[in-house]
Amino acid sequence: MYYLLNSPHSTLRFSISPKKTHHKSSFSHPKSNNFNGFYPPISLSSKKNSTRCLAQAAEEEQKLEEVLSSKEASAKLVLVIGGTGGVGQLVVASLLNRKIKSRLLLRDPQKAVSLFGRQDETNLQVWKGDTREPKDLDPAMFDGVTHVICCTGTTAFPSKRWDGDNTPERVDRDGIRNLVAAMPRSVQRFIFVSSIGVTKCNELPFNILNLFGVLKYKKMGEDFVRNSGIPFTILRAGRLTDGPYTSYDINTLLKATAGERRAVIIGQGDKLVGEASRLVVAEACIQALDIDCTEGQIYEIISDKGEGPGCNPNKWSEIFKGAIKN
Hints:
By secondary structure, the chain is of the alpha/beta class.
């Protein structure tokens, strides 16, 4: 059952409406005069009539694109694990902004309200649970889920975040093993955020980062994902930069920018070293859901100064394809 904030027996409900976002459609109209009823026949009897009909056709095409985009979004139900972390917050805010139905698994469901406001359950559902505890991963949690994005993690070195057994061993190894074991094989794509350097934890500078085993355990998590039989994409992020460093509300999250570091560099083979904007990593997670060539692939991702792909799916597709070619 869902976890309700006001009652232990009801579902968390929200009321904020996310901003509308229009996406370009790849829909291609057949070459006919009436376009299956979407366009009126264009009369060539006068230039004025032709111009008016063309304008009407463009308006109808825009409406059709919005319908197609809405249908595409409504077909998804994305389960986000780690949705209150730095990358996870941005993933959830962006999914809501795109009107993609989302479900969160949180240890503390109260955090969802402070971050994302009170959303209607048709937009966002919240379940109470902890990946470190297999008993918390109720099979019903996956009902209707088409895609999963996992952004869990903890600090590489001992800190207050390790309190309550929140260590890399428990989060990055045990948590991912439990999640993969519970996940149905009907999931269309599993996006897993890992870290660069997981295959080089005995080399500088990664051996320093791995003093307490964070890279070793992240690599174990990757292996669970790779061997799961579920279509996956693994994104190994560089050192994370840009906010949110603490919890913000959804309006603040949607206004976040990567400053000058909007360019995206994606590679394979664990060869990249550098920093990655949390905004870039979050956008890569969402874009990878629909880019076929990313299935079964492992990428490293960092940011650089310059203009990036933004939210353009065609540009992201070319970047991912380029990494595979190289």
